[in-house]
Amino acid sequence: MAQSQLGIAESTSNFELADDGLTRNGITRYGQWYGNPYGKWNAMFVSFCLHYANINNVDILKSAGAESMRLAWAKKYAYAPADGYTPEIGDLVFFDSDSDGSADSVGIIVFAGEDVLQIVLGDSNNKVEKIHIDISDEILGYGTGKTKKEAEKRLKE
């Protein structure tokens, strides 16, 4: 689902100015779907993709912010810290680019190599892009999609 959205960009003609009076926040299909058409749309993009990929866990599905999404996934035992977890295709990846301990953005893993990931990321240069990254310090953790029952089983093994 995420890769089908590559290249979709926010509107350059239909926008609101941010509080600074300079930054343009273009309308997006993901924000419209979510109900916040001019909002930061990184997590809304991921929510949109999960919804249309028929991931039906409503408790963790829909979020407008990366940190609120990360916390919801952690509450449902569907989150793994970066240390000690091997990411898989389909996992979410949460980034902490300012090193404050909270997620700043979230993307969907479409390729997972030994030390490199390919991620589809919304609101990257105002569009949906595929990026290639080395597994790095900026990665806070992963949305694994595992259930509480699966997590408890792994802990017992």
Short structural description:
This protein has 157 residues and is α+β, with helices and mostly antiparallel strands.
Overall geometric form: globular
Mean pLDDT across residues: 88
How many distinct helices? 5
Secondary-structure element string: EEHHHHEEEEEEH
Strand content: 25-35%
Radius of gyration: 16 Å
Give the SSE layout.
Elements: E1 15-17, E2 24-26, H1 29-34, H2 42-52, H3 58-61, H4 66-75, E3 79-81, E4 92-95, E5 105-112, E6 116-124, E7 127-134, E8 139-143, H5 148-156
Antiparallel strand pairs: 1-2, 3-8, 4-5, 4-8, 5-6, 6-7
Question: Could you characterize what this model shows?
Answer:
The protein is of the alpha+beta class and 157 residues long. Helices cover 25% and strands 27% of the residues. It has five helices and eight strands; from the N terminus they run ββααααββββββα. The chain has helices at residues 29-34, 42-52, 58-61, 66-75, 148-156, and strands at 15-17, 24-26, 79-81, 92-95, 105-112, 116-124, 127-134, 139-143. The strands form two sheets. The protein has a six-stranded antiparallel beta sheet with strand order 3-8-4-5-6-7. A two-stranded antiparallel ribbon has the order 1-2. The longest helix has 11 residues, at 42-52. The radius of gyration is 16 Å and the shape is globular.
What are the main properties of this structure?
157 residues, globular, six-stranded antiparallel sheet, two-stranded antiparallel ribbon, 8 strands, 5 helices, alpha+beta
